[in-house]
Model the fold of this input.
Amino acid sequence: MSESTVNLPSSVPARLVRLYGGLALYGLGIALQVKSGLGNAPWNVFHEGLSMRTGMSIGIALLVVGAAVMLLWIPMRQRPGLGTISNVLLVGPFADAAIFLLPTPEPFALQSVYMVLGVVTIALSTLLYIGAGLGPGPRDGIMTGLVRLGLSVRLARLSIEVTVLVAGWLLGGTVGLGTVVFALAIGPLTQAFTRWFPLT
Done:
């Protein structure tokens, strides 16, 4: 094992800390991208668009969509875990709280900082909550369900992300530089963070 690798304890309390810390950071990452105004991750383009059309907050839109997506798990025979339920219930409120507390950046330079921090935070938080081993997020489960039905991981993920991105854009969600940066950087960043936060 590399000396720089951090193997987090496998005890239940440590896993819970990793799960809920990851979910809180995920909400913060979403808020940073939304507040930047430079474009969101595909799913969050959809959440923002739904929020704009319905009047609900982005956090409530996250919760509603997460719960609806879990219904799609039934025909795919996916089983939720504590992490799945916690993701549905908590990421939205965490995102709403961070959106409320974060000041709105005015200069483009500060918007860019928000955008970059948002992408980095989402990459790190994804490793934390998935690495807790207490169940994937509801949106992650759709991808794994499609893979079980015969699609490749790449095709399953691409199909989902393009669908929600287009739907969110049509609803009025923000697509822009941040969306492109997220698409290009999220994979390499997540891979880089596994050096310190391995999934197993």
